[in-house]
Amino acid sequence: MSRAVRIDISWATIGRVLGTLVLVWLWLRLWQWVLLLLVATFMAVGLDPIVTWLDAHGLRRRYAAPLLVLAIGLLSFGFIYVAGSSLVEQANLLGSRIDAVRDGLVNLVPARLLEFLPRGTDGSEQIGTYLFALGQALATGILSLGIALVLTVYLLLDGRRTFEWLLAFAPDAHRPRVRQTATEARRAILAYVLGNAITSVLAGVCAYVAMRLLHVPAALLLALITGVFDLLPVIGIFLSAVPAVMLGLAVSTWTGVAVALFHATYNIVENYYITPKVYGRQLRLSDLAVILALAVGAEIGGVVGALVFLPLAALYPAVERIWLRDRVPPETVQDHRRIENSAEH
Q1: Buried b (16+ CB within 10 A) or exposed e, 230-254
Q2: Nearest to 192 by CA among 23, 66, 306
Q3: Buried b (16+ CB within 10 A) or exposed e, 42-81
Q4: CB-based contacts of 36: which residues, under 8 Å, 6+ apart?
Q5: What is the dihedral angle through the alpha carbons of 23, 30, 300, 162, rounded to the nearest 10 degrees?
Q6: How far apart are CA 204 and CA 224, in angstroms?
Q7: Considering only CA atoms, which of 67, 51, 69, 36 is closest in space to residue 140?
Q8: How far is the C-alpha of 183 from the C-alpha of 180, rounded, in Å?
Q9: What is the pLDDT of residues 146-169, one digit of tens each?
């Protein structure tokens, strides 16, 4: 005899499934805005001590926040305007050097293998495509930066009230832990923003001085590349060293070797002396954890996602200590804290 099978699904389960689908749909539609909001939050946390200091010394917060953000924006665009022509010339020089290296590598590839490589259009069409993509990316970046600066002003002015408003949704029993988590997050983000700003500026200045002493062309552009890629730990050294070594080899073989030695030496000094002094123990992550965090963040949101996801990953010890202490064995929490405070991971 056949037996009927009855599947009973409660309305609560159906509601959870529909809620999950709505959240996934919203994330797919709004993930870029979420990343912009996170970037603005990081900027607001980093600038908040300055705004608080200005407020304590007579400049009201409602005026200090927009004036500070406006000053940062004007300085950034002013630097780009002043150094723009020089950067364009240096970018053309770097591009020609990369093309020369590419052509040299193509000449080393056997002819049979070249048949399997995709054939592109002629040089003019490629340059036009590259310029259009570069212009589109630059316009998008400027627009995103402008939106992030506007959001930063609002967060500096109304961030605390917004947090208290959101905190009201949490049950009374969980509010102390939510507040403690927010405090830990603010401390980690502040250390990350200030640390990244200091190390990136220092890396760019040192790279500029070294390239000028070694008479490497496009020193300003290489310094900017070094400063930007210094934001990416572990892999940033390789991304900034490659174009510098290429232009160093254009001068002489020994210049290229000297440029490579500079990047390697500075990377060692930064990792083992500068970074511990700047960050302290706020973002003690192993190299493997950094690479995984960068990979996940880059897959979610590109370069911005990689930069945002790193401090979020560094918050896991606080989340484990605050929220998971009743679910994770006590010895696990103790071992994790001991490993975090050890000299090697």
Answers
A1: bbbbeebbeebbebbbbbbbbeeee
A2: 306
A3: bbbbbbbeebeebeeeeeeeeebbbebbeeeeeeeeeeee
A4: 144, 147, 148, 151
A5: -80
A6: 6
A7: 36
A8: 5
A9: 888 899 999 999 988 999 998 998
Neighbours of 155 (CB within 10 A): 22
- CA–CA separation, 195 and 189 (whole Å): 10
The pair of three-digit structure tokens given for residue 18, joined into one six-digit string: 């529909």
Rounded Cα gap, residues 157 and 141, in angstroms = 24
- CA pair distance 220, 204, nearest whole angstrom: 9
- C-beta of residue 51 within 8 angstroms of C-beta of residue 69: no
| Prediction pTM value | 0.74
Six-digit token string for 266: 């500075």
Distances (CA, A) of 302 to 60, 151, 267, 306: 37, 20, 24, 6
Question: Where does the pLDDT of residue 123 fall: very low under 50, low under 70, confident under 90, or very high at 90 and above?
Answer: very low
Closest alpha carbon to 306 in 11, 12, 35, 81: 35
Rounded mean pLDDT of 217-229? 85
Query: What's the burial of 141, exposed, middle or buried (CB within 10 Å: 0-12/13-18/19+)?
Result: exposed
And the tokens for 316?
Answer: 């896991």
Q: How far apart are the first and last CA of the chain?
A: 63
Q: How far is CA 93 from CA 10, 96, 99, 127, 151, in A?
A: 66, 5, 10, 14, 37
